[in-house]
Specification:
The chain is 67% helix and 2% strand. It is globular and about 50 Å long. By secondary structure, it is mainly alpha-helical.
């Protein structure tokens, strides 16, 4: 069911985003694996990203289970912070491979930004901060960052979100959609940025996984959390 898009990413919407991302990464796992020709052609980027997101969602479900009987299910500031923290903890603990490590740092950035937000939620103003923070964490975590990979796609997403957020009355949906669109454009350019990708005629596998995750966020904002359609897109 399509609903009015929210003004902030509450706990319910963060949950829906993670759930949709897991479904999307599973659905595109084989495609992303086939794209994996750099840095090592071991065809496991899709598998590793899906496994890492599964670990994140599993940890969230564990935390929610422990919270039964309390204020579980509320969409207030604390709920958003707790959802983000659980996702980050699960991803960091269960990160698989280089791509999983990168994904864990993106979720860590979500948690960091939610924790520093005045409301504990992510708004149109804070999403660009979140994506920029993700880029910083990923660069810090990689021993040898290379352009033409998820590093480039993530930076483009952050810049797209920042530019959209600078407009008057930009909505959360506007900012997230701009981030997705910028990532899609940057992903298409990766083929010409790395010889290995150019030789194989493919885009970067990790960058493709990031596009799936950003598309999942766009879709999550357009769908009522908990509905049958909330995890069936991307």
């Amino acid at each position: 069911m399509t609903v009015r898009t929210p003004d902030t990413l509450t706990g319910d919407y963060l949950d829906a985003w993670a759930t949709a991302s897991l479904a999307g990464l599973r659905r595109h796992r084989a495609e992303i694996n086939r794209l994996n020709v750099f840095p090592i052609p071991d065809s496991d980027t899709g598998t590793n990203m899906a496994a890492t997101m599964e670990s994140a969602v599993t940890r969230l479900r564990e935390v929610q289970g422990e919270a039964q009987g309390e204020a579980q299910g509320e969409t207030g500031a604390h709920a958003a912070v707790e959802v983000a923290a659980a996702l980050a903890a699960g991803a960091v603990a269960g990160a698989r491979g280089n791509s999983g490590m990168v994904l864990s740092q993106i979720l860590r950035a979500v948690a960091d930004t939610a924790a520093l937000s005045a409301t504990g939620e992510l708004s149109a103003r804070t999403v660009p901060v979140m994506l920029a923070r993700a880029g910083e964490l990923v660069l810090d975590a990689l021993s040898d960052p290379v352009e033409g990979t998820i590093v480039t796609v993530l930076r483009a997403a952050a810049e797209g979100a920042r530019d959209a957020g600078a407009a008057d009355r930009a909505s959360l949906s506007d900012v997230v959609t701009a981030a997705r669109d910028a990532a899609v454009a940057a992903l298409a350019q990766t083929t010409g940025q790395l010889a290995a990708l150019s030789d194989a005629g493919v885009v970067d596998a990790g960058g493709r996984g990031l596009v799936v995750i950003l598309q999942s966020l766009v879709d999550a904002l357009e769908t009522e959390p908990g509905s049958a359609d909330s995890a069936d897109s991307a």
